[in-house]
Write a structure and sequence with these properties.
Blueprint lengths: L7 H11 L6 E3 L6 H14 L1 E6 L4 H15 L2 E6 L2 E5 L18 E7 L9 E7 L3 E3 L5 E3 L7 H8 L1
Parallel strand pairs: 1-2
Antiparallel strand pairs: 2-4, 3-4, 5-6, 7-8
Length: 159
């Protein structure tokens, strides 16, 4: 019995989400090998909801594969339709950054300046903007200024 049990409503929702997905794991004539289990685990870690295609004509073998994958990988079997198996497992939480004081890196901004006569083509220029810079409405880049703080507020913050 798989570790994750889904209610019929959640199972229906997951089937709808999986409808447009393509199979990411293919099980061939060798059946369920350790390499297939490892690849399925990696796909579940990356996507959460996956489709598996089984190239076998034996329906009971496909059902057994679905149950075995769900048990070994701590996943929920969502659907078995034809030669497709659908598995779901919640995505693991992503590891947080080592340092919280990091600032975002430079970003590329596309500046579009329209021609003065209206019939010419606009000029497009890609510019790299750093964390302490901003793009003005005219398309020029300015450095962010430090905010002026009154002497009274500065004295309050030092207390």
């Amino acid at each position: 019995m798989p570790a994750i049990q889904l209610t019929p409503a959640i199972r229906k929702e997951k089937r709808g989400e999986a409808h447009h997905l393509d199979p990411v794991v293919m099980i061939g004539a060798d059946g369920l090998t350790p390499a297939i289990v490892k690849e399925t685990d990696a796909a579940l870690k990356a996507h959460g909801l996956i489709k598996v295609r089984v190239f076998s004509d034996d329906r009971s073998a496909r059902e057994a594969m679905l149950e075995k994958l769900a048990d070994e990988l701590n996943a929920a079997p969502v659907q078995h339709i034809g030669k497709l198996l659908v598995l779901w497992r919640p995505l693991p939480p992503k590891a947080s950054a080592e340092r919280d004081d990091r600032m975002p890196g430079p970003r590329t901004v596309k500046l579009v300046k329209f021609s003065s006569n209206g019939t010419g083509r606009p000029t497009i220029k890609k510019v790299q903007v750093f964390g302490n810079q901003r793009v003005t409405a005219g398309g020029s880049i300015k450095r962010a200024k430090k905010r002026n703080v009154s002497a009274k507020k500065r004295a309050q913050s030092q207390d």
